[in-house]
Design goal:
- It is a single chain.
- The chain is an alpha+beta fold.
- It has two domains: about 35 residues; about 80 residues, Alpha-Beta Plaits, CATH 3.30.70.
- Helices cover about 40% and strands about 30% of the residues.
- It contains four helices and four strands.
């Protein structure tokens, strides 16, 4: 297990009370676990903003598979970027809607651009990109 470094943080009482509620609602084992998660999230946002060279992400989309040529467009776009796509998973939600999870890896800017292209297609009901900084 990696070494742990302790440090102290000073907070106003009301901010600490809000943080403790956040910890309780999030079911964090300790305040330290909550702080670690928040730091990781902040570093991920920073990596996104600084266009990290090696990032991983999932793009989750929900779409109407009856939409004319939408499936063809989704596949064409994915085939244009084989260097970014690691894997995909396709789920039939109901008669009209499908959910697709696309695992991506590459530069954060390239991942964001590809996700925007996919989310922008007509017939996409929801598209959410979640970035995970890899190092």
């Amino acid at each position: 297990m990696s070494e742990v470094v302790r440090f102290s943080v000073s907070l106003e009482p009301e901010l600490l009370a809000q943080f403790d509620r956040y910890c309780k609602e999030g079911k964090f084992a300790t305040r330290s676990e909550a702080v670690r998660q928040l730091v990781r999230e902040a570093l991920t946002v920073h990596a996104w903003e600084s266009d990290a060279h090696d990032a991983a992400a999932t793009l989750t989309i929900v779409y109407d598979h009856h939409r004319t040529r939408l499936t063809d467009k989704l596949l064409e776009l994915q085939h244009r970027h084989p260097e970014l796509i690691v894997s995909t998973m396709h789920v039939h939600l109901d008669h009209d809607n499908c959910l697709e999870v696309i695992v991506l890896r590459g530069g954060a800017g390239a991942l964001q651009k590809m996700a925007s292209e996919l989310r922008g297609l007509k017939g996409i009901h929801k598209g959410q990109l979640v970035l995970a900084k890899t190092r």
